[in-house]
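forwarding from the other thread:

> can someone predict this with nicotinamide-adenine-dinucleotide?

sure thing
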Amino acid sequence: MKILIADAFDASLPERLSRFGEVFDDRDRLAEANVLLVRSKTKCTKEFLDSAPNLKLIIRGGVGIDNIDVAYAESKGITVNNTPAASSVAVAELAMTLMLSLINKVPFGHEGMVSGDWRKKKIKRVELFKKTLGLVGIGRIATEVAKRAKAFEMNVIAYDKYVEKSDHAQMKSLDEVLAESDYLSLHTPLTDETAKMINKETIAKMKDGAFIINTGRGKCVDEEAVAEALTSGKLGGYGNDVWYSDPPEASPLVKAPNVVLLPHIGASSKENLLRIGDIIVEIVEAFPNK
Ligand code: NAD
């Protein structure tokens, strides 16, 4: 069996997979590969899959499989797996990090310190305590965010089109969540329904000065509308890990005020990459066509 590791995984993975066959990271050898390991960087389009005639299994280390043309892969007899449960804690911790960095102006204070500017009087902090956190989507990651927000004594509400009940959040309509949230954290996959779900109209339904945190998918928001709302002060801040493309080409967010921006690192904790590696070894081990 030949295993191509196309994206960044834990450094121990090649050795751990070597008992199943040859493991390599040379993308020029895609045509030889029986198993392909990707995260979000490699785009498994029709054209890409057509140049992989020996492929039997693709494993996406992580949650979203929107970088893989799953229907086309399956039509060619290729099995597509992911590791959906591994990343929840890593992403939830990053959502909390973005929320806390925004409201405590961590980047602004830090930049001041390293440039010799004592910004004590320029920083007005706000708290999470007793504030309302609205979650859009109440799946694995949002549930971990809800548990952490409860430790901060936040009031946690959620909207999910496909989930009626949660032990960790009070379920509401989307309009109620938009209207009541001091902090809105996005946790849906990218689908036709969720694309640009946060736009001029939905932002208008939010409280003045509310914060949005996006660790879901970049295309779930209209970046132009978010940037405008930040500039006008309608939104108090935007904490973002996810983009229209990795890296973004010309995002208006990079010039907008009151943002904390990260390069899609939600799943990139050391511990998560080890967990993803464990699950990948199990999937390869159980794969029947080895
Ligand atoms: P999940 O499947 O457990 O939860 C997603 C939830 O969204 C589900 O409960 C689903 O019912 C809900 N949903 C789907 N369509 C909806 C709609 N139209 N309106 C409202 N809710 C809707 O997935 P998860 O593990 O919690 O991951 C959520 C998303 O986080 C992933 O799809 C991925 O896009 C993103 N993610 C980002 C990173 C990162 O690095 N920042 C890492 C992992 C996952």
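Residues 2-84+270-286 form a domain with the Rossmann fold fold (CATH 3.40.50.720). thats all i got for now
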